[in-house]
Amino acid sequence: MKQLILIFSIIFSFFTFSQESSFYQKTKETFYKHENRLKEVKYKKAKFVLRESLGKDSVLKQEFVNLKNDQLLTREFYKNDIPVRVWTGYNELGKVNQARDFSKVKYIKAIEGSPIWNNIKTYVSDSLGNFKQPAYGQNEEEVYQFIANSIQYPKEAVKRKIAGRVFIRIYIDKDGNVKPHSIEKGSHPYLDYEAWEVIEKLSKWKPAEYKGEKVDFIYVMPISFTLR
Q1: Which pairs from 113-121 meet CB under 8 Å and 24+ separation?
Q2: CA angle (146 as vertex; 145, 147 as ends), nearest 5
Q3: Strand pairing partners for 208?
């Protein structure tokens, strides 16, 4: 019985590998001497390779591999230059030691014309003082202090000396609950993801008010990532 199970497992693994291999077609290999990928080199001088494969669903898979032992270091997916699916990093034993679910990060360049945007436009254009902005804690500095204390600068971004500013929309409902809505202007996938993660940790806000009633609101917040 154990032998049958083992045979079935081997066949299933082979079938799964064959399916994935046929689903993706290798398109490019780029060679590097250093893990930070700052400078391309020829194969003879390379210690690492970035293998790119295009799937039938137009998703680009990038696998960064150590050539010394053919060890997979990272696996990332893109569609139209936007990170998708789950990105994974691997330790020396080949085990996953980090994962980022980029499918939850939404990129929307503009929300003009949507129902909530039309409401917000009405609120902020009111010249009679009927609108009150949402607030976090006692003053605006508190939310930025929370963000500064909560950000974990992605180590990949540190290695590659990536810095920048992420403009993220946060949705604050009339009960003060807050959640990330979308990225208005991203910086780099690692930084965009971290900004999203931090906003998910925010506690309740004092909701926006219009004519004395609590209302839903979308607030654009810049989050800066600076290397020191």
Answers
A1: 116/216, 116/218, 117/218, 119/215, 119/216, 120/217, 120/218
A2: 90
A3: 215
Q: Is residue 63 part of a domain?
A: yes
pTM of the full structure = 0.69
The two structure tokens encoding residue 38: 């700052």
- Give Cβ neighbours of residue 215 (< 8 Å, ≥ 6 apart): 119, 123, 174, 207, 208, 209
* Dihedral sign from CA coordinates of 187, 190, 193, 197: negative
**Contact assessment for residue 217 and residue 120, using Cβ atoms and an 8 Å cutoff:** yes
Please count the structural domains in the chain. Answer: 2
Could you list the pLDDT tens digit for every one of the 228 residues in the chain? Answer: 545 444 444 444 444 444 555 688 989 999 999 998 889 999 999 999 999 999 999 999 999 999 999 999 999 999 887 778 999 999 988 999 988 998 899 988 878 778 888 889 899 888 788 999 999 988 888 999 999 999 999 987 898 889 999 999 999 999 999 999 999 999 988 899 999 999 999 999 999 999 999 999 999 999 999 998
**Enclosing domain of residue 97:** 23-104
Cα–Cα distance for residue pair 43/67, rounded to 1 Å: 10
What is the DSSP code (8-state) at residue 133?
Answer: -
Q: Are residues 70 and 140 in the same domain?
A: no
Residue 17: inside a domain, yes or no? no
Residue 48's closest CA among 58, 57, 37?
A: 37
Give the span between the Cα atoms of 204 and 171, in whole angstroms: 11
